[in-house]
Design goal:
The structure holds 2 protein chains of 2 kinds.
Chain A (H helix, E strand, L loop, with lengths): L1 H20 L1 H36 L3 E6 L5 H13 L3 E7 L1 H12 L2 H5 L9 E6 L4 H12 L4 E6 L2 H42 L1 H9 L4 H44 L11 H27 L6
Antiparallel strand pairs in A: 1-3, 1-4, 2-3
Chain B lengths: L1 E9 L5 E10 L4 E5 L6 H8 L7 E6 L2 E2 L8 H5 L2 E4 L11 H11 L4 H14 L15 H13 L5 E5 L7 H16 L3 E6 L2 H7 L2 E6 L2 E2 L2
Parallel strand pairs in B: 3-8, 3-9, 6-7, 7-8
Antiparallel strand pairs in B: 1-2, 1-4, 4-5, 9-10
Classes of the chains: A alpha+beta, B alpha/beta.
Chain lengths: 302, 217
């Protein structure tokens, strides 16, 4: 057992030494893998940022219940009571038509236009937060409320957010496809690197086989090489994204200041970073494994 | 220890390299396989080390039937052997020390113990002073002795050597012969394929004589 651990450690160190012996080739390989991984990963980061904003809106969808313009005090109270007792309603806020007009004047800078109106065109309204925030639950509540008397219109405010979400789903699919293509590229790069290594070390492999080396023993350094190269590529991709976000956030801060808001792009989460590294290491290992299996069988000592 | 019975070896194309070979080498014996080039000496050694398989008949090493062995078991069978190849098969991108280290590495020896054994093996063949030299810088005789050091470093029970004195002058050949005798004296079974008659004269081994793939004496 100890000898076995020693051997693994030894292989690990030897592999690192092999990287160090050909720094230029290593750098280029790692760079190619890093860029190939950085492309889909950065798209993924962009999507998760967008999704974060979409979710902030969509996770707490509101329903606006607009009453008819001729609804009287008693009818408003009747509807309020009805909403309060409804099991699907979690929270309720009443916006009277006067208050709505005041908010319109304050927020849009259309004070002159509003003042020139002969009468208030806005209806009384309730802003409802539903207990069941799924699209089906929301639609059910909307359909029910819109059948009540003196309710002229019920609006789902989250509809646009849901459209955005549907768009994001499509984009996520595209990222998945892209990631698959680049994963294939990573496997191919590793496959080729290992193929060259096997060819240059052909004699060594032949001798090792002749003096009793098992196939796993011969395979191991190549698998280590593939996995470590993949891991290094993953780290490079991570660094590329980190630098890119850093630069973008600098620019965004300036832009956001002009609009008096705060926008900041988030980096890959700890879990996503770990997945990226594990996945790239695994792909490297897999490429090496394919290559070794393909080429080792051809080297039979004579 | 090694036992051939009714072994035939045919190569694709109809060449019959070995015909009806039957013999046994006991533990601790020293056996020479002699005969002209093309008589099948190398093929016989390759069959013993499971580098090739017989077309028919059985080869039994240490009680294991080599031709029935699964591919995964072959490396472990080979660890019983020390092999000295006709073309030596040294690794030219490594030092003498690293060349001899290879079998111990494969056998999973701990590093310090392995280094001790490598030095002992190099000392035995008189190359301790050249442990850092690359094989290219060694003379033909030194290369051959390095190959022998690699073959015996993991203390195999059987030493198989194919033309170990093939391209050496008489003086060096005698030195190599003495080495094999000393291994045999400590109990190693030694099988040597050679056409060096002087070597056979000196070591007085049991001799198997091959001609056109068959044992003639």
């Amino acid at each position: 057992m100890r000898a076995w651990l020693w051997h693994h450690l030894d292989t690990f160190v030897t592999t690192l030494a092999r990287f160090a012996r050909a720094p230029a080739a290593t750098l280029f390989n790692v760079g190619v893998i890093g860029i190939a991984l950085a492309l889909p990963a950065s798209l993924y980061v962009a999507l998760s940022n967008l999704q974060g904003y979409a979710q902030a809106f969509a996770s707490d969808p509101q329903i606006s219940v607009f009453l008819a313009l001729d609804a009287g005090r008693a009818e408003v109270e009747g509807i309020e009571a009805r909403l309060r007792q409804h099991p699907g309603v979690r929270e309720l806020r009443y916006v009277s038509r006067e208050q709505a007009l005041k908010e319109l004047k304050a927020s849009t800078g259309l004070a002159d236009v509003v003042d020139s109106l002969a009468q208030n065109p806005l209806p009384d309204a309730f802003v409802v937060q539903a207990r069941d925030a799924t699209p089906q639950g929301l639609e059910k509540l909307r359909d029910e409320a819109s059948r009540w008397p003196k309710v002229s219109h019920v609006q789902l405010d989250a509809a646009w957010a849901r459209r955005l979400e549907a768009g994001l789903r499509l984009a996520r699919l595209a990222v998945g496809l892209l990631a698959t293509l680049f994963a294939f590229a990573l496997v191919a790069v590793t496959f080729n690197t290992i193929r060259l290594q096997i060819l240059t070390r052909r004699e060594e492999i032949e001798v090792a086989k002749l003096i009793g080396a098992t196939d796993p023993f011969i395979r191991r350094p190549f698998l280590y090489f593939g996995a470590l190269q993949g891991l290094a590529g993953g780290l490079a991709a991570w660094a590329i994204i980190w630098i890119g976000l850093h630069l973008l956030n600098g620019g965004l801060a300036e832009l956001a200041q002009l609009y008096a808001t705060r926008i900041e792009l988030k980096h890959l989460s700890a879990e996503d970073s770990t997945s990226l590294l594990v996945f790239s290491a695994w792909l490297g290992w897999f490429g090496a494994w394919l290559s070794v299996n393909q080429h080792l069988a051809q080297i039979e000592p004579r | 220890m090694i036992s051939f019975s009714h072994v035939y070896k045919r190569y694709p194309g109809g060449l019959e390299a070995l015909r009806n070979i039957t013999f046994t080498v006991e533990a601790g014996e020293m056996v020479f396989i002699v005969g002209p080039s093309g008589a099948g000496k190398s093929t016989l050694l390759k069959l013993a080390a499971a580098i090739e398989r017989p077309s028919s008949g059985s080869v039994i090493v240490n009680g294991q039937n080599v031709s029935a062995l699964r591919a995964r078991a072959i490396p472990f069978l080979r660890r019983n052997f020390g092999l000295v190849f006709q073309d030596q098969k040294l690794l030219f991108d490594r030092t003498a020390f690293e060349n001899v280290m290879l079998p111990l590495h494969i056998n999973g020896f701990e590093r310090r113990e392995a280094a001790r054994r490598v030095r002992a093996a190099l000392d035995k063949v008189g190359l301790l002073a050249k442990e850092k030299a690359r094989p290219v810088t060694l003379s033909g005789g030194e290369q051959q002795r390095l190959a022998i050091a690699r073959a015996i470093v993991h203390r195999p029970a059987i030493l198989l050597a194919d033309e170990p004195t093939g391209n050496l002058d008489a003086g060096h050949a005698a030195g190599i012969g003495e080495l094999f005798r000393s291994f045999n004296q400590v109990g190693v079974t030694v099988v040597i394929a050679t056409h060096d008659e002087a070597l056979a004269e000196r070591l007085k081994p049991r001799v198997l004589s091959l001609k056109e793939g068959a044992i003639v004496a």
